[in-house]
Amino acid sequence: MYRSESVTSNLLIEVNSLSNRIENIKQSYSNTTHEGLRVRLFYENKSIFQRLNEIYSIAKFLKNRTVEKISFTSLLLEKSKRTIAQTRIEKNLFFL
Predict the structure, then answer these.
(1) pLDDT at 1
(2) Are 65 and 77 in contact (CB under 8 A)?
């Protein structure tokens, strides 16, 4: 199979879910003083960031295999790139 729209669609759903989870982590981190919870949130944020990078790599690979300029793959690539950029901007949250 040349490419799979269902895989791309599932990855888009996962990126949206991870993006929402990052926002929840940000809120929880700023609202708690419990040190154990803060450590867990920090490591969860780190693992989400790693997964986003994996999805971005997959999206780049899929994008290289398609000739269409507008596709679900292009959307996945852009969404994952923007989510990673947003996460990098908010990374300073954990060093306040």
Answers:
(1) 41
(2) no
**Neighbouring C-beta atoms of residue 80, cutoff 10 Å:** 26
Residue 20 structure tokens: 């929402």
Q: Residue 26 class from Cβ within 10 Å (0-12 exposed, 13-18 middle, 19+ buried)?
A: middle
Q: Which residue has the tokens 């419990």?
A: 34
DSSP 39-82: HHHHHHHHHHHHHHHHHHHHHHHHHHT---SSSHHHHHHHHHHH
Give Cβ neighbours of residue 13 (< 8 Å, ≥ 6 apart).
none
Six token digits for residue 16? 């949206």
C-alpha dihedral sign at 49, 90, 79, 57: negative
3-24 per-position pLDDT tens digit: 577 888 999 999 999 999 999 9
